[in-house]
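As a warm-up, study this chain.
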Amino acid sequence: MKTAITALITAMLLSTTCAVARPLNFATDSFPPFYYEEEGKTQGMQYELSQIIFRKMNTKFKITFAPWKRALLMAKSGKVDGVFGLRKTEERQQWMIFPNEPLMNVYTVLFKRADDPFEFNGISSLEGKNIGIIKGYTYGTEFDKSILFSKEEVANLSQNFLKLHAGRVDLVAGYRTVGRYMLKKMNLMDRIVECPGKINVSPLYIGFINNPENVETCRSFSIHLKKLKESADCKKIMRNIGIHPELVFPCK
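Now compare it with the structure written out below.
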């Protein structure tokens, strides 16, 4: 009898220790080279980084790709567990919870036509410009709230670059690494160039829907991510998952 009880307790402990958390589903738009889908497979440096963290948590996750505005609506309506790769804002914190640790910081910059003599010297230098942005994106408080220039919204960055190339907007705002990746893919690197200087430095997070199930998941994700950033192997791990040289390594 004693042996049977011991075996039962052992089995219960093992099942608790080895329990796999429920799979998570995040929505987001394609954001290469950070996260994107190619031939039906999710790839990208932030996706790879998150895989490392969720693996430590014994949690499986997937990303559903959709236009950004729709991705946010999917999360608000509870169709997914959260949104992958977004900025923390006051509005979003009303219905989402964020880890203390961001995945990484990214630079927001402006892009112009190569033959345009325009020089970016702060928000005031944008007066009168027509700037392409993406629906639902934020580019920093100063840029978002400025009324010195007009903003034209589209669904994705490639549409913005085509409009810029055609002269339908004066400038395009976007994340530096993503913009460089898209211009190379679109064979436009000789036609569209990055303006020196940055609009904003943006920490990107995974945002979880604010419910009791996600509170502990979010807290655990943050703890594991912080440990990885502080580990001796952090820089080696970042190189292995393809962190680009122009990005600041998130290691501490």
